[in-house]
Amino acid sequence: MARAAVRGRLTWQTATVTAVKQETDAVRTIELDVPDWPGHRAGQHIDVRLTADDGYTAERSYSIATADDEPVAITVERLDDGEVSPYLTEELRAGDQLELRGPIGGWFVWDTSDGGPLLLIAGGSGVVPLRAILRHRQRTGSDVPARLLYSSRTLADVIYRGELDQYRDGGAEVSYALTRSQPPGWTGYSGRVDAALLAKVAWPASQHPLTFVCGPTSFVEAVAGNLVSLGYPAGRVKTERFGGT
Amino acid sequence: MVALDGNAIGGLLLEVFGTDLTAAQTICATCGNAAVVADTVVYLRAPGTVVRCRTCGNVLMVIAQIRGMSCVDLFGMAVFDEGQDR
Question: Which residue in A27, A188, A213, B39 is a FRET match for A63, CA 20 to 30 A apart?
Fold first, then answer.
């Protein structure tokens, strides 16, 4: 039975892909034109729904990659055994349509008025909403101190690397921790984001930092636990976990 | 199945309740732990969506959707307040 859309409620709508950009071997950014988009906040996400010919549907959440004043874009990592991501990263083309709803989320969001200093910790494609935060900070000319620590398997797997490196000019500190292999002459961090690395990179708790951690569940729980051990109050450590399907 | 967190049900809660609830405050009826929805433990296909307390593991909320109807059970929460931390 068809039901009328209730005003103010979240409804599925159809967006059009305006461009796709390959970020790394396995990662693509998909830019979208969404009619009557109400605007979003850095850190929010959308739900994407794919429907097969037989009516089977699959829904996934993807963080919005762009700043508040920009059109919506999502950045998707291909999971080889995934149901949705292979389609989004390999089949989808400019001009195609996509069903989505959003923007979603009121907790894992940052605006300049929330202040800082900001500590942003990403595991893999968990960098996407943190990129939106850094992009928002940059585009508003904010001078809130910001540090990004980004854990990636290899340097080639770092998403948005060129852009993130540029944020150093705007006063943000950007560092990478490469877990699997490091290029010759690598001067950044190596290995996992553990208690010792966090003690080195994190702002002292006495500065009342505001922290956003996004990554796979095990990564987020390890990092959040270590931050609380460093004296970070749990209420100032905002976390977002994603799974592997 | 990997546990996610309450951010993952932001869209579902918005659909059911008509407002963003990821920043809403919950108090667990079992152990009394206070947490925002975003920090609860979420299993998306349990089947149905199951939300658990991060401290004691007890069930806070179950949402099942079938034939266009949403069944929401909040039996595990002493408080569910959208007015906090917003």
Answer: A188
